[in-house]
Design brief:
single chain, 545 residues, alpha+beta, 2 domains, six-stranded mixed β-sheet, 19 strands
Length: 545
Amino acid sequence: MKVSIKVILFFFCLTTIALADKFYPDDPVWQDPDRITISKPKVVESDETGEFIKMSFGDPANTKVQTAQNINTLDEIPDSTWFTNRIGQHSFSNEDLVRGPNHLEGPDLSMPWKIIKAKSSGVSPGFVIEDGRGDTYFVKFDAADYPQLSTSAEVVCTKFFYAFGYNVPENYLVFVPERQFEIAPDTKIGKDRPFTNEYLHEILKGVAHRRDGTVQVVASFKLDGAIGPFQYYGTRSDDANDIIPHENRRELRGLRVFASWLNHYDIRSVNTLDTFVTTDEKNKTGYVKHYLLDFGSTFGSAGIQPAKRRTGYEYTLEWTPILKSAATFGLWDRPWWHYQYPDYAGVGRFESEHFEPQNWKPNYPNSAFNRMQIDDALWATAIVMKFDDDKIRALVKTGHYEDPRAEDYLVKTLIDRRKKIISYYLSQTNPLYDFRIVNSKVEFTNLGEVAQISKTNTYQYQWYRFDNQAGSQEGVGGTGFTKATAIPIPKNSASYLLVKIHTQSPGEPNWKKEIRVYVRNKEQLSVIGIERADNIAPQAVAENR
């Protein structure tokens, strides 16, 4: 027994020592181990009304605002069941963007589509079909008065969100004649009402038709293993892999930046989906994968009609403007009532002149959005910057807008909103990014220079030896200055080195915020860690300068 206790104490001490290390041999981690097999969680139902009340009258998340918990040592997000690094970390051609998540050319058109179920949720008309291959799709239409408003926006924005890195369904834009639809035997509307040809014709009379008489639809490939939506706060108790409160996940916080760009104001739990991916058929075990759904209410669309004038500028229930209006007996005038929008088919109410990314709002508050920090926003902004004008146009073209003016307007509006996002968020912090070792120097990219915010910059730096276990640091040489986006690494035998960098730029006071870059000096030099003043405890910054 004594030997066993000693062995236990020995390994406990080793574990304690190891836990003291700041960096581990496998850092930086680029794959989240969140695919540990579990039993299938229970199916949960969405509660639209309950969520609206919770979020409008408080914040159900019970965590304090803190640094995102799912970042690696480079201040980036590892791939996970929530997010896959795509355009942010890898080369993405226009062909990749246009393809998006799709692995097919779309539903099979060689045989009629069998309607097997009426659509049971959402505002857009539609139903569930089975194509000639036996694949199941959710099919949605545009309202007759607003052709291409919802379906084109859904397809374009699906590809945007896929490129950002999120899991999304395969949404295909398809043009079909009315005869493409055929009602399967015993198809019902609700529980008992038969789905008749008369009912089908009534639906098709109320949807938009193209100039050639065909109907434009979004066909969304069915996701298998659906177990209900996820929330933007808390965790799922029956998923052992779901250990980080959702409001503290960077991809859900930074989603606020992407949503503001595309005006995805209808971002809520009901438009998400958890699916169970079975990896062991015998034991029926697997893991949960998390999706964003339903992008038909983006740009200027509200599904069957243009978005409301307040969309993006005011919550559905927002107390300050309500009280202002009440206090002035309705005389106080909301600014957004007077914003002007073009009259192009398929665009709706979407503009850039009055867009302020920091003040953009979804339909109602979101726990993850409420906790977005500047480092989360910088991460998202760096991804937004990957979309140049050509990439934006390539994506908008996948909406197949019949009016070329609508396409041009959407492209210009997205470009203008992108510029505002970049200008605002890059001015809030030191915008140095993409640190790497080249020829014994730490090279980096100044996103502010790339965005042409400032071209006259000086970089102040100081090197330190860094003790990975104790966390202590010892200065090496004096303070250096350079105008190059490359800092020479001092010759030193220390296993870890640290350089603290401040950017001096006229008119950009926040660029002076400290960035710490950790370099591992083992077989070869490598950048092992990035810390920004925005996610360093204030006392730590003060102590170590």
